[in-house]
Amino acid sequence: MIKRRFRQTKGEVIVIVKQLRGICILAAAAAATLTASSAQADFISHSYGFTRITNNGTENPEGQIFFEVRNFSGGEPDGPAQAALPSAQWVSILVRNVAGGMSSSIGETYFEDGTLLDLHTIVSGPGTTYIEGASPPDLPGGEPFSFVATTMFSAEAAPGNANGINPGEWVEILFTLKNSYVYSDVLAAIAAGQQYTQNGYKQYPGELTLRFGIHVRSIGLGGESEGFINSIPLPAPFGLALAGLAGVVIISRRKRKAAVSLD
């Protein structure tokens, strides 16, 4: 019996070592890919999620809606960057609804930016048609957060939510930056805006801030609509992938332990 358990334990260790070795190989490959991409084009992207600020229904798609702040124009969010922006005084904002999520449609997008952004182009992805202007003109649920939209966009009127950002769809909005601001100023303004939201909604005089809000319609089976405001930055996809792989190792180890105990 002892020898049998020893052989099983030894087998578990070998399997786990192989899995960890596989993770290391994937990590090295991913790091090499990131390094190569950085060396090739110096593309930069930062992802942010949203927090629901209204409570009209029980279903919440906030885990599938994101925006990405980028110094390149790449169109399709999961594809390669296609072109660096003409200068450091440009920025791309990509609003996306991840494929496979609950039914939902991002109908309106709101920016509170003050003297930072100047609209250049709206690029509507497949299945969407976005235009400047929005109705309602203010972010639903934004009043307690002192959210005052200065720029807004919405799906062009169509039956149902045909032109909104539904699961698997995206819209890219290109801006030029005012007053000689650059990409790093945009990130700093977002960070300041988050502090503005989290610290009692009090803005410091003269401080540059940037906040995002969205109005999501036709959520889940209930078909409710909700307002959302941008939350803290999301972890890098690379880190999430590693966490997922490590979780697979832990789960498989627990299953083997359970099998041994049944014997």
Short summary:
The protein is α+β, with helices and mostly antiparallel strands and 263 residues long. It has a single domain (42-238), classed as Immunoglobulin-like (Sandwich), CATH 2.60.40.
Feature tags:
alpha+beta; 10-stranded antiparallel beta sheet; disordered N terminus; Immunoglobulin-like
What does this structure look like?
The chain is of the alpha+beta class and 263 residues long. It has a single domain (42-238), classed as Sandwich (Immunoglobulin-like), CATH 2.60.40. 31% of the residues lie in helices and 30% in strands. The protein is built from three helices and twelve strands, in the order H-E-E-E-E-E-E-E-E-E-E-H-E-E-H. The chain has helices spanning 2-41, 183-198, 237-262; strands at residues 45-52, 65-70, 72-73, 83-84, 90-97, 105-112, 117-124, 130-132, 151-155, 169-177, 211-219, 224-233. The strands form two sheets. The chain has a ten-stranded antiparallel β-sheet with strand order 7-10-5-2-1-12-11-6-9-8, with helices on one face. It has a two-stranded antiparallel sheet with strand order 3-4. A hairpin with a 4-residue loop joins strand 11 and strand 12. Mean pLDDT is 77; it is low at 2-10, 13-40 and 238-263.
Describe the secondary structure blueprint for this structure.
Layout: H1 2-41, E1 45-52, E2 65-70, E3 72-73, E4 83-84, E5 90-97, E6 105-112, E7 117-124, E8 130-132, E9 151-155, E10 169-177, H2 183-198, E11 211-219, E12 224-233, H3 237-262
Antiparallel strand pairs: 1-2, 1-12, 2-5, 3-4, 5-10, 6-9, 6-11, 7-10, 8-9, 11-12
